[in-house]
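Annual report, structural modelling task.

Input specification for the S-adenosylmethionine complex:
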Amino acid sequence: MERPTSTIVSFDHDTPALARVYARRSTPQWRHGRLLLDTLALQEGESVLDLGAGTGELARLAADRVGPSGAVLALEPLADRVALARSKPRNNLRFEVGGSERLDGLPARSFDVVLLNSVFHWIADQQGVLDDMARLLKPGGRLGLSTGIADRPHQQAMVLAPVLTRHGTGTPVARLSPPHPAHPEELRRQLLAAGFEQPRLDTHTFVDHFSDLGALLEWNASSFFGNFPGGFSPHQTPDLWREAERALDPHRTREGIALERYLLLVTARRAASARPAAGSIQL
Ligand SMILES: C[S@@+](CC[C@H](N)C(=O)[O-])C[C@H]1O[C@@H](n2cnc3c(N)ncnc32)[C@H](O)[C@@H]1O
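The model returned the following structure:
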């Protein structure tokens, strides 16, 4: 069956500058990534696949946790982010350019843990990637992923979308969010269909703080690798900028602009007797 591909997401808008901003500003993703890693309870000597590793912060933490006898493979489609990630090497960590479309070359049953932190909601063919993860995991291996939720857009999208719409950019909430957020019950079904057991899907609320509107937009642009609707600045669109500032006023706190994000943290175990990998023969 032909796999669906996203018509919205482009990997061509990233730049070395956006990659550097992501490395500096991705504390929000780091916080729930660390929580996910804690839940997965990595052990010394384990092998880990981090799919969509970005600039590699979480992959490095995974490498520290599995120790010198373990190994982490970090795949990331954006070459500038891989280049940055490689500038902080670890002996047991390999960064490669690649994404969910190019997993065929990896041998089946080669990982104890696979991880997708803030990546799943960018992928159009979600059943396909879950099938691949089940193929790549050893029997009993663990999957961990975090994703946005379809009926719970982040607060920033609810605040900014009406402002952008009023200024004629026609930006709906969906354009300010990754394109494939999870429908939890559908995701549970997909996990079971892929051969996962004991799926746990927990909704978490995270509160992020931004020093100002500029910092919020920078975080978005780098987290969306250039796909976030841009073109608003204090100089070129001063009215829009002022209105966005006003819309954020109710969220200003002593720590900065406080905005809630809602994420589904998902863990599951590949069944010990998962169905055979495509093309293999079960004896
Ligand atoms: C918000 S960043 C998260 C990066 C990293 N996982 C972290 O926790 O910091 C989203 C990442 O997903 C990657 N991504 C998007 N679509 C992907 C796909 N189809 N396969 C693999 N990675 C993908 C992007 O290139 C980007 O680096």
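Strands lie at 47-51, 71-76, 93-97, 111-117, 137-148, 196-210, 252-253, 256-270.
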